[in-house]
Write a structure and sequence with these properties.
- The protein has 700 residues and is an all-alpha fold.
- It is 52% helix and 1% strand.
- Strands 1-2 form a two-stranded antiparallel sheet.
- The radius of gyration is 24 Å and the shape is globular.
- The two termini are 13 Å apart.
Length: 700
C-alpha cells in the first residue's frame, strides 16, 4: 500500500502539495515513513518518509503537471487560541509521555461477545518502548497538522462527496444523507454499474491479477476483489488473499488484510483477529519472525470494523482498552468500534467509558465521539446529553471538541433546541477554529435531516428559521472570513433537507438567491468553489448560468472541476457541450478532468464514457491515462469493462497503468452503492493524523 494500493493518490500528491486536501478522493497529510520487508516479514528499517499513496518515480515517466493556480484559503485568525485554556500542549518529541495516567483495561460488557482472544497470546518479542501505553507512542508530534493552520473545507468535501455524486452513469442517489454512510438511511435504489454476468466474468481476471508479478497490480487486485466479491461467492478466492498475507512485500500484505475485511466471514475475521492482536498464529500467517508491524495490525483492526460482526468486536475492545498498545493502535480500534452493527450495544458501553477517561491521550479520546455517532441510533442517541456536557466543559481539549461538534450533527435533531443553541454558540465563540467550522457543518446536517424530525413540522418552523438565519448571517456577515466557505456548505446541506418540506420552500429559494449573489460578488477561488458546491447541494437550477459563465476562467483548474461537479448537481443540461470540450482539454490537470467526467455523468450525458475511452487510447502520458481510467471506474459502465480488461492484460504497458486499470475494474464491479471506505470517511475528524486511517482514506 505504501508503494501501490493507493495508486489513485499519486495524482493527488503530484497535483497539490501537502497538507492541502483534495476534492477528488485523495487526502494528503504528513506522516511517518514506512518500512520495507525482507522475506519472512520482519521490518528492515525505515524508508524515506512518504505521503500516503506516494509512488517512487519510475525511469522514463514524465512527472504530472502541477496546478499553479490552486486556490488557497486565508489563514486562520492569527490571535485566536486553538485549544481551551488548561489543555496540555501537544508533544514535540516522538513518544514523550504527556502526563495523564494510563487507563485500566475495560472488559467488554456481558452483553457483548465473549469468545476470542483477550490479548496477545505471548509476550512481545521485544520489551515495550517508552512510547507504549495510553499516553505515548503513535504519530510523532512533528508530523501533526499545525494547530495554527485553518483546515481547508476541501478536505471535508473530499471525504463527504460520495454521498451526493452518482457513480452509476448519471443516476444520482435518491436519498443523499450522511445516514447512508452509517447504514441509517435508506440505500439509494441504483442499478449496478455492470450486469451480474459481466461482473462475474471479471472476477477471474482479478484473481489472476492477485498473483501478478507486479506489486502494483497484485495489491490493487486485493482491494478490487474485496470490494466486488460478495461473501457468498468468496470461498474459491479467499485462499489467494490469505496467501498474500505472507507476501515478502509490505504493500500486498496490507492490501490483503483490507480485502479480507471487505469480504468478511468467519475465516477472514479469524485471520484479522490474529494479526490485530499480534498473536503467534498471526505472525505465522504474515511470515513474521518478530512482532507484526503496527500499521499492518491497525489495518487488520479497521478490517475487523468493516466486518462488523459480533465476533469481530472482542479484539477491537481489547486494543481500544489496552494499557500497553501504542496510541495509534488504540485510536484505530476506537475508530473501528464505530462500525459495529450486531454488537453496537456492547460497543457504546465501552465508548462511553473511554469518553469519560480524562487521562486518555487527547488525540485518542477525540476518536470516541466520531465512533459513537456512527453506531445505529438505537445504541448511540443516549449519548447526546453526555456529548453536550463535554462540549460545554472548558477543560475539554480542542481535538475532542471538534469531534463532539461533528457527532452532534449526526445524532441530534432540529427539534432539540438546546443542541442547536449549543452548536450556534460554539460556531460563534469557540476558541478553536476547526471546532467552529465543524459546528457549522453540524448545523447543516441537522437541516439535512429535517424531514426526519420527530416533531410537528409547523411547530418546528421557528426553530428552523432561527438556525437558517444564523447560517445565512455567518455567510453574509461573517465574524471571521475563514468561516465563510463552511457557512456556505452548511447552508447548502440545511436547504437540501428542507427542500422536502412545503413550508420551507421559500426559505430554500432565499438561500439560493443569496448564495448566487455572493458567488457573483467574490473573487477568492476557494470561496467560489464552496459556494458553487453549496448551490449544487441545494439543486439550485437558477445557478446554472452563473456557474457556467465562470467555467470559462482557466486560471484556477481546481475551481473549474468544482464548477463542473456543481453544474451536474444542479442539472445544467446546457453545460454538457462545454464540459465535453473541457474533458478533452490537455491543459486541464488530471484531477480536474475527473471532476468534469463526474459532472457529465450527473447530467446523464450519453457520450462521455465513449469519449473517455477514446481519450484513454490516445493518452500522451501515464498521468493522463490514470485520470481517464479512474474516471471510467467511477462513472463508467459496461462499455468501459472491455477497455479496462485489455489494459490489465497488456503486459507491455507500464505497471502503474495496469494497476490503475485493476482499481477501475474494482470500482465498476463494486457490490455496494457507495465506495467501501465511505463509512470511515464521512464526518471524520480529519485534523487527527492516524496512519491506518490515512492509509484507507485515499483508496477508491
Amino acid at each position: 500500500m505504501r508503494r501501490a494500493i493507493r495508486l489513485l493518490a499519486l495524482l493527488a500528491v503530484t497535483a497539490f502539495a501537502a497538507p492541502d486536501a483534495l476534492g477528488h478522493g485523495g487526502i494528503i497529510r504528513g506522516g511517518t515513513g514506512g518500512s520495507t520487508r525482507t522475506p519472512g516479514g520482519t521490518p528492515r528499517g525505515p524508508t524515506r518518509p512518504r505521503h500516503p499513496g506516494e509512488k517512487k518515480d519510475r525511469p522514463g515517466e514524465t512527472p504530472p503537471p502541477t496546478d499553479p493556480g490552486a486556490p488557497t484559503t486565508p489563514p486562520a485568525d492569527p490571535g485566536a487560541p486553538t485549544t481551551p485554556p488548561g489543555t496540555p500542549s501537544a508533544p514535540t518529541t516522538p513518544g514523550a509521555p504527556e502526563g495523564p495516567r494510563p487507563m485500566a483495561p475495560v472488559t467488554p460488557p456481558a452483553s457483548g461477545p465473549t469468545s476470542g482472544p483477550v490479548g496477545p497470546a505471548t509476550p512481545p518479542a521485544v520489551p515495550p518502548s517508552p512510547s507504549a501505553g495510553r499516553t505515548g507512542g503513535g504519530v510523532p508530534g512533528a508530523a501533526r497538522r499545525s494547530p495554527q493552520v485553518s483546515d481547508r473545507w476541501e478536505t471535508w468535501w473530499s471525504q463527504t462527496r460520495e454521498l451526493y455524486l452518482s457513480r452509476h452513469a448519471g443516476a444520482p442517489p435518491d436519498t443523499a444523507t450522511s445516514g447512508l454512510a452509517t447504514g441509517r438511511g435508506a440505500q439509494p435504489a441504483l442499478d449496478p454499474l455492470l450486469r451480474p454476468e459481466l461482473r462475474r466474468s471479471l472476477l477471474p481476471l482479478l484473481a489472476q491479477s492477485l498473483r501478478d508479478a507486479s506489486v502494483e497490480v497484485a495489491d490493487s487486485a486485493a482491494i478490487a476483489l474485496g470490494r466486488s466479491l460478495p461473501r457468498a461467492e468468496a470461498a474459491p478466492l479467499l485462499p489467494h488473499l490469505l496467501k498474500n498475507l505472507a507476501h515478502p512485500e509490505a504493500s500486498p500484505q496490507e492490501a490483503a488484510v483490507l480485502g479480507l475485511g471487505l469480504i468478511g466471514g468467519p475465516d477472514a475475521v479469524a485471520a484479522l483477529r490474529e494479526i490485530a492482536l499480534d498473536a503467534p498464529e498471526g505472525r505465522q500467517r504474515c511470515g513474521a519472525s518478530g512482532p507484526i508491524d503496527d500499521l499492518l495490525r491497525g489495518l487488520a483492526t479497521l478490517g475487523l470494523g468493516l466486518a462488523g460482526t459480533q465476533d469481530a468486536l472482542s479484539p477491537i475492545v481489547t486494543l481500544a482498552t489496552s494499557a500497553t498498545a501504542s496510541r495509534e493502535l488504540v485510536a484505530t480500534a476506537i475508530v473501528a468500534m464505530g462500525l459495529q452493527r450486531e454488537a453496537a450495544p456492547a460497543a457504546i458501553v465501552t465508548l462511553s467509558r473511554l469518553l469519560d477517561e480524562r487521562g486518555l491521550e487527547r488525540s485518542v479520546r477525540a476518536q470516541v465521539p466520531i465512533a459513537m455517532a456512527r453506531l445505529p441510533m438505537a445504541a448511540s442517541r443516549g449519548m447526546l446529553p453526555k456529548l453536550l456536557s463535554h462540549l460545554a466543559d472548558k477543560q475539554t481539549p480542542a481535538e475532542v471538541a471538534r469531534s463532539i461538534a461533528l457527532a452532534l450533527g449526526q445524532l441530534a435533531s432540529l427539534e432539540e433546541a438546546e443542541t442547536t443553541r449549543v452548536l450556534m454558540e460554539t460556531a460563534r465563540r469557540h476558541s478553536d477554529a476547526s471546532t467552529r467550522e465543524f459546528a457549522l457543518i453540524a448545523l447543516g446536517r441537522l437541516g439535512e435531516r429535517a424531514a426526519q424530525a420527530l416533531g410537528d413540522p409547523l411547530q418546528l418552523e421557528p426553530q428552523r428559521e432561527s438556525v437558517h438565519a444564523f447560517l445565512l448571517g455567518q455567510l453574509l456577515q461573517p465574524e471571521r472570513k475563514t468561516q465563510q466557505p463552511w457557512a456556505a456548505l452548511a447552508l447548502g446541506l440545511f436547504g437540501r433537507g428542507e427542500a422536502e418540506l412545503p413550508a420551507a420552500r421559500e426559505r430554500v429559494a432565499h438561500s439560493g438567491r443569496k448564495l448566487i449573489e455572493t458567488f457573483e460578488s467574490v473573487r477568492d477561488p476557494s470561496l467560489q468553489g464552496a459556494l458553487a458546491l453549496s448551490l449544487g447541494l441545494l439543486r439550485c437550477a437558477e445557478a446554472a448560468g452563473p456557474l457556467q459563465e465562470r467555467l470559462t476562467d482557466g486560471r484556477h483548474p481546481e475551481l473549474r472541476g468544482q464548477l463542473a461537479v456543481a453544474l451536474g448537481m444542479v442539472g445544467a443540461r446546457a453545460a454538457a457541450e462545454p464540459l465535453r470540450a473541457l474533458l478533452a482539454d490537455p491543459a486541464l490537470p488530471p484531477l480536474s478532468r475527473i471532476d468534469v467526467a463526474r459532472g457529465l455523468a450527473l447530467l446523464g450525458d450519453a457520450t462521455f464514457e465513449r469519449q473517455l475511452i477514446e481519450l484513454l487510447a490516445g493518452a500522451p502520458d501515464s498521468h493522463s491515462a490514470s485520470a481517464y481510467v479512474r474516471a471510467l471506474g467511477l462513472v463508467g459502465g459496461s462499455e468501459s469493462a472491455p477497455a479496462l480488461r485489455a489494459m490489465v492484460e497488456d503486459r507491455s504497458l507500464p505497471e502503474l497503468q495496469r494497476g490503475f486499470a485493476v482499481v477501475a475494474i474494482g470500482l465498476l464491479a463494486e457490490k455496494t452503492p457507495l465506495p467501501w471506505n465511505v463509512p470511515y470517511l464521512v464526518d471524520a475528524n480529519f485534523t487527527l493524523p492516524l496512519r491506518p486511517l490515512d492509509a484507507i482514506l485515499d483508496l477508491l
